[in-house]
Amino acid sequence: MDFFLEVLTGGLLAGVMYSLVAIGFVLIYKASGVFNFAQGAMVLFAALTFVSLWEHGIPFWGAFVMTLLSMLALAWGVERVVLRPLVNRPPITLFMATLGLSYVIEGLAQLLWGSQVHGLELGISDEPLEVGGMLVSQFDLFAAGVAGVLVLILSLLFNKTRIGITLRAVADDQLAALAVGIRLERIWMIVWAVAGFVGLVAGLLWGARLGVQFSLSLVVLKALPVLIIGGFTSVGGAIVGGLIIGASEKLAEIYLGPLIGGGIENWFPYVLALLFLLVRPSGIFGERAIERV
Amino acid sequence: MLYRESGQFNTSYRADQRWFRLWQQRWVFATWMILAFVVVPLIGNDYWLNAILIPFLVLSLAGLGLNLLTGYAGQISLGSAAFMAIGAFATYNFQLRIEGMPLLISLFLGGLTAAGAGVVFGLPSLRIKGFYLLVSTLAAQFFVTWILTQCGWFSNYNASGVITAPPLVVLGQNISSPAGRYLLTLSVAFVLFWLARNIVHGELGRRWMAVRDMDTAAAVIGIPILQTKLLAFAISSFVLGIAGALWAFAYLGTVEPHGFDLSRSFQILFIIIIGGMGSILGSFLGAAFIVLLPILLSNLSATFLAGWVDPGQLENLQKIIFGALIIFFLIKEPQGLARLLEIVRQRARVWPLRF
Amino acid sequence: MFSFKKRAALIGVLALGMVATVQAANEQYFPLQSYRVGPYAAGGTGFFGGFIDYLQYVNLKEGGVNGVKFTWSECETEYVVEKGVECYERLKKGLNGAPAAATNPLSVGIAYATLERSAADKLPLITINHGRTDSTDGSVFPYVFPLQLNPYSEVSAIINYIGQQAGGLDKIKGKKIVTLYHGSPYGKETNPILELLAKKYGFELTLLEVPHPGNEQQSQWLNIRRIKPDWVILRGWGVMNPVALKTAQKTGFPADHIIGNIWSNSEEDAAPAGAAAKGFISITTHPSGTNFPVLQDIGNTVIKAGKGNLKDSKRFGTVYYNLGVVNGILNVEAVRVAQAKFGKRPLTGEEVRWGFENIRLDDVRLKQLGAYGLVQPLKLSCSDHEGGGAVRFQQWDGKKWQVVSDWVQADRKLLRPIIEESSHQYAKEKGITPRDCAKES
Amino acid sequence: MVDNTFPHQLLHQAATQPALVALRHKYLGIWHQQSWRELSDEVGSLARALAELGLGQGDTLVLLTYPRREALLLSMAAQWLGAIAAPVDPDLDKDTLALLLSHLQSRFVFAEGQDQVGQALLHGATRVVYAEARGMTAYSHENLHAYIELVQTDTKGVHPLMAREQDVAFALYRITDEQQVQVEHFRHVELLQEGRHLVLTERLGQREEAFAARVFATSGHLRYLLSPWLTAGFTLNFPENIVTRDADRRELGPTLVVGTRETYQRLESLVKARLPIAGSYVGRFVTYALQSDGSRFQKLLAYWLIKRPLKDVIGFSHIHLPLLIGPALSQESLHFFRSLGIHIRTWDKIANWRTLSATTSNKLLAETQTDSIKRALS
Amino acid sequence: MTAHAPLLELQHISLSFKGIKAITDISFAVQQGEICALIGPNGAGKSSLLNVINGVYQPDEGVISFNSKSYSRMKAHQAAVQGIARTFQNIALFKGMSVLDNVLTGRNLKVRSNWLEQMLNSGRAPADYVSQRIKAEEVIDFLRINQWRNSIVGTLPYGLQKRVELARALASEPRLLLLDEPMAGMNNEEKAEMSAFILDTQREFGTTVVLIEHDIGVVMNLSGHVVVLDYGKKVGDGTPDEVRHNPEVIAAYLGTKH
């Protein structure tokens, strides 16, 4: 029985890692209705920039700030070049633009920092802790803690600060926000920058887990089912969605896997998300879109 | 501008239905066909046939398949590579397990199997719309690659799950030579493009476009949404299936499920974005662009700047160029190259006047 | 109209590129389908760096082989099959008149795709340490050479090593071994052999697949924790290896009971896992490090002279780099052997093929090449395109690989019938009449 | 010599070249064609139907219609019976039209659609034929006849041809500023003579493709379009409607275009408005090309790059005779068209309008008929 | 009012969106060949009622009977098959297609050949296409939009798009035509023209028309039967004159408190 618990906690903690990436999606979707497929590439870009700077001898926090500045620049560039000309285009076009964007960022990252594999040591030893007969990885706990702090900061930002309120206004109705005089471009840049920050945090944690290299950007494929279940518009939903996906994925692999040949982690989350969708076509937390004729 | 079109008018609705109204257009099309069917196999060297023309034809066929589904019926899909994989493995098994099965029949049956799978993964499209449809097709993408590697039966228990092309024999002729494979791909592509053109200009094409533009209005005027969407998935997967089979047998010769992974689906989606959504010619132009640009880039760099840009950096540069082009097209001309060509043609038609 | 103009311009450029200068250079050409970008860039840059540096070294030190200099040109494949095929088609004709000697794609997918074309174009396809195991049988696969080690020998050598550690092959009866393999043709290739060996020696085998790209292995390693095996054989590639080591540490499995195969044995596989990799064992056909005469020579004549292909000089002497050098040694040796028979001039693919089949690398010859200890004694023939089949084992001490064993031979007698049965089935399927090797050698 | 009237010419053409296309008009998206044989049969059955309605020698059939195929056939059917066809332009403003119609008091009217039928019934029309069925249910008037009914009456033999060359074929009416009604009469013989004159001088064959947006607008149309059409036997083409005439002309590529001064002026202004703006590079190149002087190479370039495509855009690629009827075009416009290689030929004849006092119109009509009968008898 | 059964009859229809009462207990009948106008202030539930008739919304209670067959759950597809066609308040045309294609799509229920025959251009397809095309061209000619036959709908001005939408509705030869503010945003001359088209449609093809219109002048001379709605309730039903003098209607329009 405690093996089941162990798998469950391992799954939940892994789920937290997925929701880290998913939060980046939610932020951008909430504020600009853009389904940003380039979030994975941004995670790769952030991690690669940080590691390369760190290896060139710049201290940890120095590298962190410089990477953050580069994410800000990236956000400004994306808003200026991609978002502004595509302002009221159908969501499908915007989605495809972010597809193109992910190619650009991946190419840029590898052009600047080369395609070597970098180890990333955050100083957290990964010796598993003995907790009630179960092995729980220290690293994952740390990651869960970081995620919790992040969600706290974001909810504070969204609810308490002035920028937060404007962000939520833009999320609800862009036209109304414009009418009230909110400068849409600035808001979008802020949102993409915040998403860049979340991407950096996710990049560091995922980078420490996998080593910083190209396949970091594939982590976006894990985030998609999380968003489907959690809904695109709520940060809390992203966390819950991540936990559900993480746990169910691991349990399915261990209990269902051997029966049908193993290696089902790629498609199982999508099938699960699909079942959720058939029940609620816009996710647990997402608002139900009313079909206007 | 180049040719005079006055004096050619239609006296019957059948004449009005023809693809090309002007005899000059028909002549240009005929010369293209002669060039493709007769001249190229004669003068084409191995490199041109194997490495450029065959992949171009197969990718334009795949582009056509996805264009029918996303360009015309408006159902976005990231699972096109999965349907190609099903087509390839089904054709391989039909060819292998049934003695003396002619290649073309097994190609057709492979397409049908892919169409069946297309319908299955198309079912959710009735209940969910837009983004969420991505999930159903992505599920198809990952599930199919998994099932093909998992069950040995599909690859005839080959230890590493790789299928190799059987000797290609059509009507008794062995066509394994590059020119032979090229002609096989070309004729299959020609037939499918012709049929697709007829569908798109017929009632079904209009229903697809109606569902694409405004499905609530389509339902109100009596279009059976269920049947229309499933037909879109079925026909699109049929074409993709055959493209997949040609990719495995006519182009590479051997293929593994990972040859049809997500980046292949992205590639096909890029083909129709750059080529032109909702245009038969668009799939051609997009495929030509996607196949020729990397080769052009690497050749240019190999000959001119061989010294200081090493191939690795060039690959990154090319990735950036591709991404930038996608964004450029989406901003400047969402309907892609086909629309640009159309604007040039319209401008030439009223030359020297401005409109 | 529009696309016709584009096509015409392209033909012009291509023709220009092809023709260039057609002077009858006295050069032997190596087409390189290299990959320096994408998920497997680490392997590509190291291997092709080593290979090019060795060719450079032979050109600089001995002016090529008997006066025939080596030339090469690279074409980026990004480890993608159709790009590999396109590069093969473009480069197989040679460069400025220099005929191609052999192709070294270092990718299972590309090897499979160009296998038949190599036979048709009569150009040897070298898949050192990997590729189709049944291509060892030269009678059916005349133009394919899985030099030094094929996947079946690799796995059999590992089992022999586990037997050694347990004090004899009979002792491993009842032990539990898990094989964690990459969900691709390369990964699945050896599963049947493992099952055969498990039946033969009576150990309990579990096969766990890691879906590509292998970013997430928590569930596999939790399974391993439940099985509590004695040994884990890791047949990984790319990102899968460091993730395996880190997840092993996370689930409390000792790193020194994990044995990596030939494609999980480089510094780039262990270093990113940091502390979790300490004690990790892996097999290798060539030790890392530079204390071999040939490598010192390369260091002095090529690297110090600034002609090294490596962008990051710290990778000189790493496992991939040395594999590239070993591959260079074997290719050049084949050319040298072929020139002895066919004359001191640029050779065609067919002649180089004969050269490969008559490579005799005994200890004396290895000492002359300065590669004693780096390369195992090899004896290739028409029927045996592998030649070696032995490996050494090395352990990662946190910074470098330390060799911890002598050559461990695979059980080739057991494997031969399986190889032949598989190659004959391929011959029947493809309608190839196997060559009669008896009268050839 | 074949009897010198429009219906006779029609029968002559139907006999000599029955299968050739006489009429072509664009309707419902495609071009419908009618051969000479079919045309003469239809006119024949129309004549018989009109005779049954009581249309006889000397009566007037008012054609209150926009340019339409049915109007042309009805006018020939009326002439077949010796009656006069009097086309009236429905675009005239309300009261001039009312004055004209009340003046004419014609019993037989062809009214195209709902509005024209209303106006005709107001002014004493007893026999009204209509073409467009729309809105007809509102007029449940017993002597209202659909054109299709007339044509479909079963063929009980052919009505004898009553037309004589001295009969008045057409009568054009207009209202002068002082509310005076003026009329111009055209006899068969004059029209055919003018038509033959044009056919000979311009060497018009039977393979011509004539294109005209309006058929009855002016006397020039009757003289230099209808009568040459019947004498030479070429094809007369109608556009789908007034608005689509430019596109239809381009689609057709006619060899003979008939138009008034306004037609050509409208065409010229349309082209000039759409030519590239003078300042731009292209604009400069176009103006440079359209000048007549310059080297051989410049002429060649101008022809292939500008003149040839421009002629094709306005549908003049196959033009053999761009005919202008009525008052001539200004020199400057003529020069413009000549620079495009289009040499407009002007045919004009001074119209002899005779003013009728408001009361005497009917009497005069009767009188012209009587002296025509007298002349026929003498 | 001939005595035989009305073409369309609504009995006690009510509809609510999660508590908000859009329509409460409305019943009225429309005779065959009649032009009936639904008028009332904004938000009176006119559009929702139209959507109920043609099956876009399903009413909470009440029965719709059309052509003497009654439905409580009318589906959009069912309505179309029965011969109910409609236009929308903010134009629901297929922007990516040409005018001709839009009108031909209107006729999709009348197409007899299936997609296979059309693909191979064999069997019933060629003749079927010609007959569909002629019917469509007749409607295009009827509404005088043949000049824009091949232009893409998205590029046409607003007034023209309204006409194309009417053409698409007419193409399906409906028995009942529902028009949702056909003349919204038009100038007087365009309004006159559109009224003429509606009158002709009713006279020419005998189609029963139910339209929503704000311009009382147009309503009065166009329709023989007027139904007035206010806050989802029916406050007036009868000939234009009866309705004009009905106190409740005046109150609704002049906005005296209830």
TrEMBL record, chain A:
Record localization: Cell membrane
- One Gene Ontology cellular component: plasma membrane
The text of the family note is: Belongs to the binding-protein-dependent transport system permease family. LivHM subfamily.
What are the entry keywords? Amino-acid transport, Cell membrane, Membrane, Transmembrane, Transmembrane helix, Transport
Which residue ranges traverse the bilayer? 12-29, 34-54, 60-82, 94-113, 133-158, 190-212, 224-247
Query: Which GO MF terms are attached to this record?
Result: transmembrane transporter activity
Domain of life of the organism in this record? Bacteria
Q: What is its main location?
A: membrane
Q: Which organism is it from?
A: Methylobacillus rhizosphaerae
Q: How does this protein sit in the membrane?
A: Multi-pass membrane protein
Protein's recorded name: Amino acid/amide ABC transporter membrane protein 1, HAAT family
GO biological process, alphabetically ordered: amino acid transport
TrEMBL record, chain B:
Keyword annotations from UniProtKB, A to Z: Cell membrane, Membrane, Transmembrane, Transmembrane helix
Membrane topology listed for this record: Multi-pass membrane protein
Main subcellular location of this protein, as a coarse class: membrane
User: Which InterPro entries has this protein been placed in?
Assistant: ABC_transp_permease, LivM-like
Q: Cite the Pfam families for this sequence.
A: BPD_transp_2
Where is this protein localized, as stated in its record?
Cell membrane
State any single GO MF term. Answer: branched-chain amino acid transmembrane transporter activity
Q: What is this protein called?
A: Amino acid/amide ABC transporter membrane protein 2, HAAT family
Q: Which domain of life is it from?
A: Bacteria
* Chain segments annotated as transmembrane: 27-44, 50-69, 76-94, 100-123, 130-148, 179-196, 232-254, 266-296, 316-331
Choose one Gene Ontology CC annotation of this protein and give it: plasma membrane
TrEMBL record, chain C:
Q: Which residues form the signal peptide?
A: 1-24
Is Signal a UniProt keyword of this protein?
yes
Database matches in InterPro entries: Leu-bd, Peripla_BP_I
Leucine-binding protein domain span = 36-398
What are the record keywords, sorted? Signal
A Pfam family that this protein carries is Peripla_BP_6
Q: Which domain of life is it from?
A: Bacteria
What family does the Swiss-Prot or TrEMBL record give for this protein?
Answer: Belongs to the leucine-binding protein family.
Q: What is this protein called?
A: Amino acid/amide ABC transporter substrate-binding protein, HAAT family
UniProtKB/TrEMBL annotation, chain E:
Q: Which SUPFAM superfamilies match?
A: P-loop containing nucleoside triphosphate hydrolases
What Gene3D superfamilies does UniProt report for this protein, alphabetically?
Answer: P-loop containing nucleotide triphosphate hydrolases (3.40.50.300)
List the InterPro entries.
AAA+_ATPase (IPR003593), ABC_AA/LPS_Transport (IPR051120), ABC_transporter-like_ATP-bd (IPR003439), BCA_ABC_TP_C (IPR032823), P-loop_NTPase (IPR027417)
Indicate what this protein is called per its UniProt record. Amino acid/amide ABC transporter ATP-binding protein 1, HAAT family
What would you give as a GO molecular function for this chain, any one?
ATP binding
Assigned keywords, A-Z: ATP-binding, Cell membrane, Membrane, Nucleotide-binding, Transport
GO CC annotation, single: plasma membrane
Classification via Pfam families: ABC_tran, BCA_ABC_TP_C
Q: Which residues form the ABC transporter domain?
A: 8-256
